[in-house]
Write a structure and sequence with these properties.
single chain; 209 residues; mainly alpha; 9 helices; 0% strand; cell membrane; amino acid transmembrane transporter activity; LeuE-type; Threonine/homoserine/homoserine lactone efflux protein
């Protein structure tokens, strides 16, 4: 294991994280609903999901999952259903309307929002079968069969930390724009678009082979 390999992995993980997908949409949704703390919670949840996928890929469980048609289908359908559920919630929020400008939430409410966002970020990443396929294709390029436990731990940490850094930056950027984004008309449009995207992504995952 050398610095070049670690940086190469970080670059690939960063490019994958930056591409629009379920993680991005859930992050945006979390910040708009709960502010910066919720966004940071979501970032930690997504990074935890990446960490979990890196670990299970390293010990071979992800390969078994991909090789089992039944197990892979269960994960795929569970992930699709979860994204559709989040999408429907956003669409219902857009339909109800009645948004107010962002206010300082109470401490207890903020903590609940952060925990909810963490859970949503984690589950969205864990239930995305494309993440499993991504790691199965990526890991052998950086982790040879004779890799040590230390090598595996370093690569796993690099993958998780890269995701955490990117989504933390994204959470702060969206937070800076939150006052504009949470204006009633803008928020309603964003919720409608996010809801449609989440439902669409969920359906696409469900019907994918």
């Amino acid at each position: 294991m050398n610095v070049t390999q670690a940086l190469g992995l970080a670059g690939v993980i960063l490019l994958a994280a930056m591409s629009p997908g379920p993680d991005f949409v859930v992050m945006l949704r979390s910040v708009l609903a709960g502010g910066r703390r919720a966004g940071l919670g979501c970032a930690a949840g997504i990074a935890s999901g990446v960490l979990a996928w890196a670990v299970v890929t390293s010990i071979g469980i992800a390969g078994l999952l991909a090789a089992s048609a039944v197990a892979f289908t269960v994960v795929k359908l569970a992930g699709a259903a979860y994204l559709v559920l989040l999408g429907i919630q956003s669409l219902l929020a857009a339909r109800r309307g009645g948004y107010e400008q962002a206010k300082q939430p109470e401490v207890a409410q903020t903590r609940r929002s952060a925990f909810t966002a963490y859970r949503q970020g984690l589950l969205t990443n864990l239930f995305n079968p494309k993440v499993a396929v991504f790691f199965l294709a990526l890991w052998p390029q950086f982790l040879p069969h004779d890799a040590t436990v230390t090598d595996t731990a370093i690569l796993t940490a690099v993958a998780a930390l890269t995701s955490l850094v990117w989504f933390t930056v994204l959470a702060n950027v969206v937070t800076a724009l939150r006052r504009f984004l949470t204006a009633s008309k803008v928020r309603r449009t964003i919720d409608a678009v996010m809801g449609t995207l989440l439902v669409g992504i969920g359906v696409r995952i469900a019907v994918s082979q």
